[in-house]
Amino acid sequence: MTTDDEYESDTASVGSVDSLWGNDPETIDVKGGWQDEMLETVDALGERKGSSVSGREELLKNFVRVASLKVLTVETLNGRVDELVANLGRMVKAGRSDKEMMLSARAISLLAASTPEVASLSSSILPLLQLTISNGGNEEAVPTLIYALVSIAFFSPTMSSQDIIPLLDFLVEIVHSNGHSIGHDDDDILAAAIESFGVLLSTLEDPYEPIHKHLPVIIDALSSPALPVRLAAGETIALSYELVPPSSDDDEEDEFTELTPYDDIDHLTSLLTSLSTASTKKLSKNSRREQHSLFRDILRTVSTHQPLPTQKLRFAKREELRLDSWEKLLRLKQLRRIFTHGLHVHLAGNVHVREVLDLPPPSEGPSGGSSDEDEGGMSTAERRNLQKEVKRLREGRVRRDRKRAGEGRMIDVFGEQD
Question: What pTM was estimated for this model as a whole?
Answer without folding.
Answer: 0.82
